[in-house]
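W.,

You were right to be curious about this one. When I first looked at the sequence I had no strong expectations either way, so I just let the prediction run and decided to look at it fresh. Below is the sequence, 440 residues in total, followed by the output.
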Amino acid sequence: MIRRRRSRPFIAVLPSLALIGLCAAVALRALDPALAAGTPPSIVRIAVAATCAAFAVAVAVLAARPGGRRLVNVALLNLLLAGAGVEGVLRLSQTWLPHAVVALLPPDARQRLAAERGMLTTASIIGSGQLYSYIPGSRFPGQPWLVPDAQGYRNPPEALAGSPDVVLLGDSVTIAVNSPTDLATLFRQDGIPALNLGFNGYGPPHSRDALVRHVVESGRSPKVVVFTFCLCNDVTDSQAYARLRAVGGDWRDYLGSAPARDVPPPPLDRSWVATVAWNLPYVLVQATRRGDAGGEVAVALPRGTVRLPSGNLSPAVPPRPDWALALQALDDMAGRSRAAGAAFVLAYYPNGGQIYRPGITDPALASAIDDGRAAALAILAEWAAAQGVPMVDFTAAVRDANAGTMALASEGDYHPGEPAIRRMYEVLAPVVRPFVTKTK
């Protein structure tokens, strides 16, 4: 009796072929120059393409053998099941996903979740020139207390009537979207009319523009203008503003100056887990370049020990020459405030390393942070003395608030939560009140 050789159906090879095709699509997508605005692919994308190509070759070799096909099919099934599970977890927990994960999601999901949390999105921002703000009346489910006024800033409608006694300028630290209470609200609760013109991403030049448009040109006559200088990014934001102004760029260019996340090839572009995996290599490389991959640092606070990425505690401070553009904007703000009949107050907000400094036990890191803080304060104090304006240092207030409870937007972040905002007000109000009462 002649035994027939069992046929091997083509369907058994289909999973391997699909996987090879997917690897090829991902590799081609990674090498697409259009993703880098026409520039050659980065080393990260080349590495991704090479890895996909090597994986495709390995699958092809295995698929040529009966036992290998079975191995590929089982591995692919497990991969699909695991991916589906992670996909489900991401979608079900979207309300609680960290900002770092939201930034890696597909564009539609990223925009929606970012808008719900009061973050900057093309759907919630309007602007002119390099000045921008929220679309008036926008709503943010993640921050129900954040209701933009008719100018797009964080103020109740009545705050726009007449001239406020206090105008607050600054960036995300000043608008404080993660806190139910901001500094302007606390001033108003004390019977001092206040207007908050702080906004996410602003550098000193943006605050100068906001002062001109919403105070000087609007005919408002405040008693005092307070600008909060955020060490974390005000120097670099001033440089970015100047670069774009030189080439005629606007707020869209400014907000889009950071490298954008993109998506993998179809059909993976709709998958959250696939998009996160696609963007992760780039994020890891950037973290390494910033020093975030240097491990964790144990920070011993009165409320307990927390472990934070070393990149969140960087002691780095921009060198003095880099401060020129920021200081020029400060000159302009102080001069325009005085011309409008208002006193000018400079406030200093520390970076993450300086906030967590009391709990850092590494002598070298602690010393570097102290040196950086001293250098930054020396530059600003020198400017304040030359201008004859008072200066407020928020460092001790934020440290005190964060010692007994987590007082920031999240652990390791530098943005203030409500406990920090209230302590900051206790430091700022005594400096501001004399300027208000003198003119009443």
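Here's what jumped out at me. The two ends are 114 Å apart (CA to CA). And, maybe more interesting for your project: The mean pLDDT is 85.

Coffee later to discuss?

I.
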